[in-house]
Amino acid sequence: MEIVLNGQPHPVAPGTRVADLLEHTGLAGRRVAVELNGRILPRAQHASQVLAAGDRVEIVHALGGG
Predict the structure, then answer these.
(1) Cα separation of 15 and 63, whole Å?
(2) pTM of the entire structure?
(3) Alpha-carbon distance 28 to 45, whole Å?
(4) How far is residue 45's CA from residue 58's CA, in Å, rounded to a whole number?
(5) Residue 57 contacts by C-beta under 8 Å, 6 or more apart in sequence?
(6) Nearest to 61 by CA among 38, 39, 43, 49
(7) Between 19 and which of 24, 36, 47, 66 could a Cys-Cys bridge form, CB atoms 3.0 to 4.6 Å apart?
(8) How far apart are CA 27 and CA 40, in angstroms?
């Protein structure tokens, strides 16, 4: 199935959770904000939220600097 990840089509397997997506993109364990279909998804829900075809996911991660 396909979702939209940061504005681009992205294939994922059925049953993929947000936590799985973060792992796949190399962002697991990092400080990120996840927006799912226009709503911020709390970190506590990343492991349980299953993605559906057509979902729009935006992932923003913090970069250090000074």
Answers:
(1) 30
(2) 0.90
(3) 14
(4) 15
(5) 3, 4, 5, 6, 10, 18, 21, 34, 35, 36, 51
(6) 43
(7) 47
(8) 17
SS3 state at 34: strand
pLDDT value of position 66:
59
Q: 5: which 2 tokens?
A: 């990840």
Amino acid occupying residue 32:
V
Question: Position 46: which residue type?
Answer: H
pLDDT tens digits for range 1-10: 999 999 999 9
CB 41 within 8 A of CB 34: yes
